[in-house]
């Protein structure tokens, strides 16, 4: 009933806005997507039997704008969710609705909204459909721009939790304020200065009833005194001078015993610092990150990807090639310390190595370790009901989580032919996914990707990927892998592709081929793609947030359109 009233209110406000301005109607835009999957049992790859003949994820967005007024609706259906999505998404209905009014220096949004403060260390409400993640806020958002270069924000509300009526649950209330000040815009004499400086700060808190939780200390059981208000704050800066840039954000969190940190009372903190130097043909970026007990949710018993109030970005490279991404890294929110470096250089044109078109080279290094944690006196490490541990600010722990050295070379040989060469050396600790006791994985991955233009609006692309390792990650990721295939694009509208991923390195069972055939077309704002084949079991990560993707064997189709 509440959703029906909200929808009626949106339509009423829209009609009133139209009538008030004497206009027959405003502007309506939107988009639509549907994913359809059919999968069958396949014991060779671990694909389980699916009871339904067809699985479907769909959504449709409708946006209405009329002058300073805008409103939107989002309809979703998971009937039933495709493989890898949480079964709690099962169902259909209006997932979000909102109205917004923007006039002069003020913007007000009521209903569902997304927001991020700074880098997200204390607040990021966002959606990532490929991960099945949506922690949209439902409440009120106010943005004020009282003076040039000053942006003030305030939010209050609750986070989406699948299809639950969150206002009928005990999930926590989220409140936050943020301010950002650009000195170059605020001070007219600094507008064209080579020095650039922006400062910002945030404060976010959650309120949740304490509930009941016990801990056992030295054989005795104690009821924990759980704080109902959890506060976090952050300060950030962006400084630039000509080709040099330096930015950082430093966050802290009050005592927050929860299921993720095993109900310890240690305060949390996070530091993110990066430096860049960019001139024509050369770019250098250095980045460091430290996370210490920074799980921050609006429900203390939640352990999955839902109800995250903050976001802890990864500093490792995000790969698009499947074998490069086989051992993707997930941010360790209870504690990690890492460093990364990127160098990008373009060898000039008309030189021996650059050739006629120049050659681009990218070198990346990343390394992530555990924190050097020391247990509290007379207690085990992370003992529930205690402060958990002590950890020095720059002390690196013994456990290596991930290391990568990555080299990429992009070379254009002619106006019709270009190639991409990549090499990656990776060290991956399965403990990062909770698979403690498994051996460290050492992998060498090679990629060769070439594209040739056959004629106007026609091209063919081929790729070969190879992964070499002596270790096994799980039952269906054993030893060496080889992937090869080709894609043909023609007319600017159609494509055909065929690929095979071959686990030829396994020593047990059959050496499985994960073949896949796909085709698609694009006309105007509508795109249709369909594929048939096998998908290996694995981990999908985007920005350090991951979910497990189960094995499947069958058909997958996607239709997207906008208007």
Strand segment tally: 34
Low-pLDDT sequence parts:
4-10, 12-24
- The amount of beta strand, in percent, is over 45%
Q: Strand pairing plus helix content: what structural class?
A: mainly beta
Give the count of helical stretches. Answer: 2
Mean pLDDT: 91
What's the end-to-end separation, in Å?
29 Å
- Cα gyration radius (Å): 26 Å
Question: What overall form do the CA principal axes indicate?
Answer: globular
Largest sheet report: 24 strands, antiparallel, barrel
The helix fraction, in percent, is under 10%
Topology diagram in text:
Blueprint: H1 2-20, E1 27-39, E2 55-66, E3 69-78, E4 91-103, E5 106-113, E6 115-116, E7 124-125, E8 127-128, E9 133-134, E10 137-144, E11 150-159, E12 173-182, H2 183-186, E13 195-207, E14 214-217, E15 220-223, E16 229-241, E17 244-253, E18 268-279, E19 282-292, E20 335-347, E21 359-375, E22 389-412, E23 417-428, E24 441-455, E25 458-469, E26 472-474, E27 477-478, E28 481-490, E29 494-502, E30 513-523, E31 526-535, E32 538-542, E33 545-549, E34 552-562
């Amino acid at each position: 009933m509440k959703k029906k009233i909200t929808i009626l209110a949106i339509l009423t406000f829209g009609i009133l806005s139209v009538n008030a301005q004497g206009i027959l109607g405003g502007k309506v835009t939107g988009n639509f997507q549907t994913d359809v999957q059919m999968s069958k049992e396949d014991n060779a790859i671990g694909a389980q039997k699916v009871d339904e003949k067809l699985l479907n994820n769909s959504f449709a967005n409708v946006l209405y704008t009329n002058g300073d007024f805008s409103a939107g609706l989002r309809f979703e259906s998971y009937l039933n969710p495709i493989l890898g999505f949480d079964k709690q998404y099962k169902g259909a209905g209006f997932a979000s609705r909102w109205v917004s009014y923007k006039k002069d220096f003020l913007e007000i949004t009521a209903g569902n909204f997304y927001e991020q403060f700074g880098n997200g260390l204390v607040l990021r409400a966002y959606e990532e459909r490929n991960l099945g993640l949506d922690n949209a806020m439902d409440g009120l958002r106010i943005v004020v721009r009282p003076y040039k270069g000053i942006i003030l924000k305030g939010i209050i509300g609750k986070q989406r939790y699948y299809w639950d009526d969150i206002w009928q649950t005990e999930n926590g209330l989220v409140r936050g304020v943020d301010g950002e000040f650009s000195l170059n815009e605020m001070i007219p004499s600094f507008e064209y200065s080579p020095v650039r400086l922006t400062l910002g700060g945030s404060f976010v808190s959650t309120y949740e009833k304490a509930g009941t939780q016990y801990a056992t200390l030295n054989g005795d059981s104690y009821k924990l005194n759980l704080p109902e208000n959890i506060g976090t704050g952050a300060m950030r800066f962006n400084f630039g001078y000509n080709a040099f840039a330096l930015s950082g954000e430093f966050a802290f969190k009050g005592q927050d015993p929860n299921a993720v940190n095993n109900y310890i009372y240690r305060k949390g903190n996070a530091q993110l610092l990066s430096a860049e130097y960019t001139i024509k043909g050369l770019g250098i970026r250095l980045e460091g990150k430290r996370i210490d007990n920074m799980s921050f949710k609006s429900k203390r018993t939640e352990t999955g990807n839902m109800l995250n109030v903050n976001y802890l970005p990864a500093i490792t490279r995000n790969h698009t090639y499947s074998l490069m991404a086989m051992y993707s890294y997930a941010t360790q929110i209870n504690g990690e310390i890492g460093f990364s470096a990127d160098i990008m250089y373009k060898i000039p044109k008309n030189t021996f190595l650059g050739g006629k078109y120049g050659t681009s080279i990218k070198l990346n290094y990343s390394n992530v370790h555990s924190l050097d944690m020391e247990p509290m006196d007379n207690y085990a490490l992370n003992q529930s009901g205690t402060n958990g541990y002590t950890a020095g600010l720059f002390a690196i722990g013994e456990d290596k989580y991930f290391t990568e050295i990555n080299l990429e070379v992009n070379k254009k040989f002619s106006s019709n032919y270009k190639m991409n060469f990549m090499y990656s050396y990776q060290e991956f600790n399965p403990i990062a996914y909770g698979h403690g006791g498994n051996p460290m994985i050492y992998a060498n991955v090679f990629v060769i990707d070439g594209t040739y233009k056959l004629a106007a609006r026609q091209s063919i692309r081929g790729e070969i990927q190879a992964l070499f390792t002596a270790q096994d990650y799980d039952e269906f990721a054993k030893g060496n892998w080889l992937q090869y295939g080709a894609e043909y694009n023609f007319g600017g509208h159609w494509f055909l592709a065929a690929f095979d991923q071959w686990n030829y390195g396994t020593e047990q069972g059959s050496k499985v081929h994960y073949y896949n055939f796909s085709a698609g077309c694009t006309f105007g704002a509508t795109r249709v793609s369909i594929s048939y084949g096998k998908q290996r079991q694995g981990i999908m990560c985007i920005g350090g947030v991951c979910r497990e993707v189960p094995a499947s064997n069958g058909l997958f189709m996607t239709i997207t359109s906008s208007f």
